[in-house]
Amino acid sequence: MSFPPPFYRWRPHPWHGLDVGPDAPAVVHAYIEMTPVDTMKYELDKITGYCRVDRPQRTSSLPPTLYGLIPRTYCGRRVSSLMEGAVKGDRDPLDICVLSERTIARSDVIINARVVGGLPMNDHGEADDKIIAVLENDPLWGKVEDIEDLPPALVERLTHYFLTYKLRPGEATGVSIDHVYGRDRAFEVIEAAMADYEEEYGG
Question: Is 73 part of any domain?
Fold first, then answer.
């Protein structure tokens, strides 16, 4: 049986089977693993491509935005070279946080996200950047161009979440975020992650 392109006979893998985006690095695809209304931590299962329950959130903190990954990116040596103090990348796809005015209450969806900045998160010496984006054509956030256009309290909330979401009582987190960066730097990080992916997995 023949199938018309771009029909997928089987579900494409969200990391390897989807395009990086319609206009990368400015507009990328975001595969959403977590939403701001769920107290579970989900993560893409790298073998099957399905969302796996990783763990219940240990604290009362919820992700302030949609949270997921950018397909066909990889945090390797190029990404780590952009972060002071990082000795290597975390060997995962690049993470992305996406602002949406309307509640998207389910994960395992793909959205178009326009990149506006990022957080250089260092997790025990590994570069684990969090790209910040807005839902393309969003009626409230759609005109945001750069990180400085976002309310400072929202950026602080994102920073606080990632500094504490792995927190265990009595233990140091080993996580730091040096500063927030804007759109141009975020483009550099995405392009580095795309090149790292090509090196690791090929075209």
Answer: yes
Quick check: is 155 in a domain? Answer: yes
The end-to-end CA distance of the chain, in Å, is 27
* The predicted structure's pLDDT at residue 45: 92
> What stretches in the chain show pLDDT beneath 50?
none
Tell me whether residue 185 is in a domain.
Answer: yes
CATH code, domain carrying 149: 3.90.80.10
The parent domain of residue 143 ranges over 27-201
Cα–Cα distance, 117 to 51 (Å, whole number)? 26
Residue-wise pLDDT for 168-190, tens only, equals 766 777 899 989 999 999 999 99
Tell me, yes or no, whether 6 lies in a domain: no
What is the full DSSP assignment across the chain?
----TT--SSPPPTTTTS-S-TBTTTEEEEEEEE-TT--EEEEE-TTT-SEEEEEE-SSS---SSEEEE-TT---SHHHHHTSTT-SEE-SSPPEEEEE-SS-----SEEEEEEEEEEE-EEETTEE--EEEEEETT-TTTTT--SGGGS-HHHHHHHHHHHHHTT--TTS---EEE---EEHHHHHHHHHHHHHHHHHHH--
Number of domains, the chain: 1
Question: What pLDDT, on the 0 to 100 scale, is given for residue 173?
Answer: 75
